[in-house]
Amino acid sequence: MKSYGPYTVSQFLSPASSLRFKVDSNIEYFTIQNNSPYQLNIEPGGSEMINFPEFLRQDIKVSQASGTFNGQMTIQPVVNITGTTRGTSNTLWIFTYTKGELPQAQVIQLSPPAIIATATGKPIFSATVGFGATTTIGQNLNVFNPPNSGVVMEFHSAKFYTNDSTGPTGNVYTLLTGGDLNFSTPVSAVSHDAIEPLPVSVAHCTAVDSSSFISFTTNPETINLQQMVTQDALSFPDHIKLYPGGNLFIQVVSGTTNHVVRLTLKWTEDVYTPPILGVNLGLIANQIINEGNPLQPVLQATKQGDTAEDILINNDGTLTSKGIATFNALLKALGGIQFPTIGTISAGFQMIGDTTIANAGTSVSHLLGVTPKVILPVLDAGAAGVADVIKINYGTANSTSFTAYSTNAAGTGNVRFFLLA
């Protein structure tokens, strides 16, 4: 038997390189002892890839079914799904056995006890806000987990500080309906990991100095605050899980104003590493199916540097697009109309609006770049009983203009044209 390890599993999380090492290619079994909260993708060179669960020890027979094992081992941790109530270990051992050394293969579940709340290996974040001279008797700090975040936040600390001596309370609340509380003061979610690139939280954090009552779903903790003492309402093993779409906020309620207050929330977030598959530079998905679900986005994208969604399509068919706004602006600049909805629009389409056509003829410019095949005039307004008729001289039409005539001797105003190339 030979042993390899121990390895610290979290050091090999993406974007770090996978764990790679060589073993004897003539072994009969290898044992994976994954004493960590990470699932592993294990690729024994020349054999099939194995998805290995967290907190498990298993003896695996070397398979020659899909090739010849060459001794190269590649291991990539892919996801962390363990809560703070599970183990704190973060180690990996590998053992190898030649033929006859291992009498019987075994599978053993590993379940070490939790020691500290932050021992899962997940990224840690905190949000802190301070009020130098409070203007009301209530100060609030909120963390919102967006509905489409795909992660669960686990809060292990809710700290309060105040110099108030009137018997203030520190309160922890959750609100699971109604969307983001979105208080008036933005607060940063700060990473506690000094690595590059820095982990980025999905949370939206805000704060406010306000005594307005805020409805809540639950009130897990309330503590009496001492003057000028930092107190934590979530002492281990207490913790609160916040799922997508929920708010967790803490609040100081004082007897008077003009106090110093500081609030801090600390939490961890799930780590998700998408599977690494073959790269297709064209097609990404050949169909999207979203049937029978509540209103939700099925496609959304934002260019780096933009603050609002550049394109958003919901499962009820509504579409919001920066491109539509740009197209409408162009039509308006040309004197055309704006489209409330857009289906399929030919590249050879233009609308020209609010044009005055003289009896002797008026040359009308367009931007099609080719000679229009169809020119449809529409009178936007006209007096009752006036028989204005607009005639088009197709013989004068070209890639930049055409000539139109009015049968009214005084000319006709407010004429619009629809052009198709």
CATH third-tier fold name of the largest domain: Jelly Rolls
As a percent range, the share of helical residues equals under 10%
- CATH top level of the largest domain is Mainly Beta
Specify the biggest β-sheet: 6 strands, antiparallel
How many distinct folded domains?
3
How far apart are the first and last residues' alpha carbons, in Å?
A: 79 Å
Morphology call: flat
Number of helices: 1
Count of strand segments: 31
Unreliable segments (pLDDT under 50, ≥5 consecutive)?
A: 82-87, 272-284, 331-347
Question: How many whole angstroms does the radius of gyration measure?
Answer: 33 Å
Overall pLDDT level = 81
What does this structure look like?
The chain is mainly β. The protein folds into three domains: 2-109, Jelly Rolls; 124-272, Jelly Rolls; 349-420. The chain is 3% helix and 42% strand. It contains one helix and 31 strands. It has one helix at residues 322-333, and strands at residues 2-8, 19-22, 29-35, 38-44, 50-52, 56-61, 72-80, 91-97, 107-109, 124-131, 138-144, 153-162, 169-175, 185-187, 190-191, 204-209, 218-224, 231-232, 240-242, 247-253, 261-269, 271-272, 297-301, 311-314, 319-321, 349-357, 362-365, 374-379, 390-393, 401-406, 412-420. Strands 10, 12, 15, 18, 19 and 21 form a six-stranded antiparallel β-sheet that branches. A six-stranded antiparallel β-sheet has the order 14-16-11-20-13-17, with no helix packed on it. A hairpin with a 5-residue loop joins strand 4 and strand 5. It starts with a strand and ends with a strand.
